[in-house]
């Protein structure tokens, strides 16, 4: 492993084993046409499953110019094992030699942001990790995986954000995918390609405008749409306000292939049904949270699984339904004694 000296005290001790990989691997590396090599699903993979676990072959500062001498990249190269060196040098390099040394170019092309910290001394510090498998995934503005860094095991796990068919290409994101297409393409120019993913290669300007508008709406969602917490106790709002609004978000997410954004919206729909005391629908949506989060966010999955087992253990269970009944009762005309007393 190639390390910046200040990283050493930030390394986890003891280093625990990373999560178990699937055997045989659920992925393979193959030719992806004009994109060069790419990562592909070796089998059908369900949503939420771990596709691979990867450890960095190099750790570099996130801001190269700040405190890292360029020559240090190449000076450290002979210090790593032959197999690591060969793996590292086989990775893509979008930087010309006239601009920077080869290892620096490879690091700049492939590094993923990771956080290191040595508690209790310092706040987490950002570094770049070069993960030899993760960085094989090409970019798409409709990525289909999520990558989660785990400091104690010094590894990242890659999760499926939607079901894969065997042979399908696995896509990561290299830039902010909520930006408009023109901005995305400008940012990707530093990797030396024009993005022709299915969300960029659109038939006409009308489609581009529609896609850009959907991404802008998702980015600013909470400034534009009702929020769950205020809604949950505000009886002036329609009972289905959050459900209707979040179903629209999910439709936009589906349209743009931004599957990684789904969970918070699904979670709010489930909790809306909990506040409305609708048990069948609550179970249906809560189960989706469990399915999506089982691998990536087990704490959240366990919390929702507990509520599925005992829906009424949710603190606000049926609160709006009870309030609505009381309000409807108040609206009922009072019994008036219209009998004439004579
Ligand atoms: Zn694209």
TrEMBL record:
<dbReference type="InterPro" id="IPR046341">
    <property type="entry name" value="SET_dom_sf"/>
</dbReference>
<feature type="domain" description="SET">
    <location>
        <begin position="25"/>
        <end position="175"/>
    </location>
</feature>
<dbReference type="InterPro" id="IPR001214">
    <property type="entry name" value="SET_dom"/>
</dbReference>
<dbReference type="InterPro" id="IPR053185">
    <property type="entry name" value="SET_domain_protein"/>
</dbReference>
<dbReference type="Pfam" id="PF00856">
    <property type="entry name" value="SET"/>
</dbReference>
<protein>
    <recommendedName>
        <fullName>SET domain-containing protein</fullName>
    </recommendedName>
</protein>
């Amino acid at each position: 492993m190639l390390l910046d000296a200040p990283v050493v005290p930030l390394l986890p001790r003891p280093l625990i084993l990373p999560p178990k990989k699937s055997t045989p691997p659920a992925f393979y590396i193959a030719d992806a046409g004009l994109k060069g090599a790419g990562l592909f699903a070796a089998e059908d993979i369900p949503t939420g499953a771990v596709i691979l676990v990867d450890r960095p072959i190099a750790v570099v500062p996130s801001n190269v110019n700040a405190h890292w001498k360029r020559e240090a990249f190449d000076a450290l190269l002979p210090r790593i094992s032959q197999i690591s060196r060969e793996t590292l040098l086989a990775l893509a390099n979008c930087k010309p030699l006239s601009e920077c040394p080869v290892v620096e170019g490879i690091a700049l092309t492939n590094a993923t942001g990771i956080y290191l910290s040595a508690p209790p001394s310092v706040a987490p510090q950002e570094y770049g990790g070069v993960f030899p498998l993760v960085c094989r995934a090409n970019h798409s503005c409709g990525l289909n995986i999520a990558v989660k860094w785990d400091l104690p095991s010094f590894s990242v796990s890659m999760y499926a954000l939607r079901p894969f068919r065997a042979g399908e290409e696995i896509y990561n994101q290299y830039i902010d995918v909520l930006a408009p297409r023109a901005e995305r393409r400008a940012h990707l120019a530093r990797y030396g390609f024009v993005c022709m993913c299915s969300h960029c290669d659109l038939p006409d300007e009308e489609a581009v405008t529609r896609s850009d508008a959907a991404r802008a709406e998702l980015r600013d969602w909470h400034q534009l749409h009702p929020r769950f917490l205020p809604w949950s106790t505000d009886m002036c709002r329609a009972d289905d306000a959050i459900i209707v609004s979040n179903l629209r978000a999910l439709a936009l997410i589906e349209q743009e292939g931004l599957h990684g954004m789904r969970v918070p919206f699904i979670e709010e729909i489930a909790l809306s049904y909990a506040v409305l005391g609708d048990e069948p629908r609550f179970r249906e949506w809560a189960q989706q949270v469990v399915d999506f989060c089982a691998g990536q966010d087990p704490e959240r999955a366990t919390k929702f699984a507990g509520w599925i087992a005992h829906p009424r253990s949710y603190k606000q269970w049926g609160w709006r339904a009870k309030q609505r009944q009381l309000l409807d009762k108040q609206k009922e005309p009072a019994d008036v004694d219209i009998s004439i007393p004579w």
